[in-house]
User: Which sequence fits this backbone?
């Protein structure tokens, strides 16, 4: 019998043993704060634990207004102040139970990574990943090809950033409703979508992947754009390059704290949903470990502070690495920023619906900067952020013409788009505050000592 096994396998088995001996403990506290529910998570530490917790809370559509992170050594303790979509403390027993199930002892450290955009399980669908040059009408062409190939789009998410477009699309066969697994058909789908992406300008960097994979959709989009090096690109042809985005660019600082052996990341930017997930996801996928952190997002702006090291225990070691980390975090924040007017479409789902809607957008000169497509039962629940073809706000006449063509009771305009005005200079940020002792602050934040004020 061959008893040899690799060090990686030994580490994985040891990690599983530790997690089973010390399963996560989750406390839902509705009494300590007047404005938020406190979710406290304690567990044996492992790479990616923080991201998994944040991902679960985010996927439940909860807003994290504050977070205190401490994970030195083999144990971590995280405290999250969360509210529901209406800004209220959690009162829904079902939501509280789902938090306990996803993060507590029943999970045994195997937390869910797949739920996003209304997809129940990736194995129920064929997954298509697309990345290429963004241009007006490209989304319309993609959905038209899929409709022509008898593919039913169950869900999709589309991001654009610095003239690049990335999308994850979940499809089934139009007739059977099952995943598409015929090799010849999959090859044809990939070939035709590649033609659409490459066009006349992007023959080398466009890419199409068809799989049955189950990676969390939003994390996968970050990974795709990171691999595409969108953080290192400039806008081309002026697309979305002159809309004032530079004025509202996030502020990211990275400094080394020599006496503690950490690198300290400090982020100031306008707050928005899922901001914490985006920054933690990027740090995790870049192989950094967050040992301590504080997040405050109770107003229009958010401040995130992280004490990080590489997985090998070393801090950021060069100016080039520091600049790369800054650019990657800036890109992670900007990818999901809501550029454009928010349009919500709710209707009975049917084959070709997305192809028809995005065609009407294109014919009226609208460009989709971000999209979230979901199917719930027989209903299509879709959100589009649109600008004109040059990246500027859409005029009222165009919007009403599009709504009249699609249906006034089907397509609705939502004016809760985040302002593009730059953050006010409040004077709250100082590099000198980065290196003060954290022990008393963390004990207070975790509720273990009381304020003397």
Assistant:
């Amino acid at each position: 019998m061959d008893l040899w096994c690799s060090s990686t396998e030994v580490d994985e088995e040891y990690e599983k043993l530790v997690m089973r001996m010390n399963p996560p403990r989750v406390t839902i506290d509705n009494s300590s704060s007047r404005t938020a529910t406190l979710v406290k998570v304690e567990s044996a530490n492992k790479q990616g634990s923080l991201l998994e917790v944040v991902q679960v809370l985010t996927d439940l559509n909860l807003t994290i207004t504050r977070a205190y992170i401490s994970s030195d050594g083999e144990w971590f303790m995280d405290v999250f102040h969360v509210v529901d979509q209406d800004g209220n403390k959690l009162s829904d027993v079902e939501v509280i139970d789902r938090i306990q199930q996803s993060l507590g002892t029943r999970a045994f450290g195997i937390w869910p990574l797949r739920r996003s955009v209304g997809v129940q399980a990736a194995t129920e669908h064929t997954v298509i990943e697309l990345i290429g040059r963004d241009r007006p009408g490209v989304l319309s062409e993609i959905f038209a090809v899929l409709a022509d190939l008898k593919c039913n789009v169950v869900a999709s998410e589309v991001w654009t950033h610095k003239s690049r477009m990335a999308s994850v699309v979940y499809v089934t066969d139009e007739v059977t409703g099952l995943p598409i697994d015929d090799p010849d058909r999959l090859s044809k789908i990939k070939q035709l979508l590649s033609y659409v992406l490459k066009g006349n300008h992007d023959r080398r960097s466009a890419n199409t992947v068809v799989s049955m994979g189950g990676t969390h959709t939003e994390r996968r989009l970050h990974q795709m754009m990171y691999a595409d090096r969108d953080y290192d690109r400039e806008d081309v042809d002026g697309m979305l390059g002159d809309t004032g985005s530079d004025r509202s660019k996030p502020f990211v600082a990275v400094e080394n704290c020599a006496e503690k052996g950490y690198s300290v990341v400090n982020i100031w930017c306008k707050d928005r949903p899922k901001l914490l997930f985006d920054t933690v996801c990027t740090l995790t996928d870049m192989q950094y470990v967050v040992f301590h952190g504080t997040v405050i997002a109770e107003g229009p702006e958010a401040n995130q502070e992280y004490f990080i090291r590489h997985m090998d225990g070393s801090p950021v070691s060069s100016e080039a690495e520091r600049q790369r980390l800054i650019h990657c975090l800036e890109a992670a924040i900007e990818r999901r920023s809501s550029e454009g007017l928010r349009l919500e479409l709710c209707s009975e789902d049917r084959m070709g619906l997305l192809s028809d809607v995005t065609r009407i957008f294109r014919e009226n000169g609208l460009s989709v900067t971000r999209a979230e497509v979901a199917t719930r039962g027989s209903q299509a629940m879709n959100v589009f952020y649109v600008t004109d073809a040059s990246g500027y706000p859409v005029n009222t006449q165009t919007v009403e013409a599009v709504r009249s063509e699609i249906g006034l009771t089907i397509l609705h305009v939502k004016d809760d788009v985040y302002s593009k005005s730059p953050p006010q200079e409040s004077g709250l940020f100082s590099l000198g505050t980065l290196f003060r002792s954290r022990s008393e602050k963390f004990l207070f934040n975790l509720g273990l000592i009381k304020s003397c004020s």
User: Anything to note?
Assistant: The chain is about 30% helix and 30% strand. The first helix runs from residue 7 to 21. The radius of gyration is 23 Å. Confidence is low (pLDDT under 50) at residues 106-122, 237-245, 417-453.
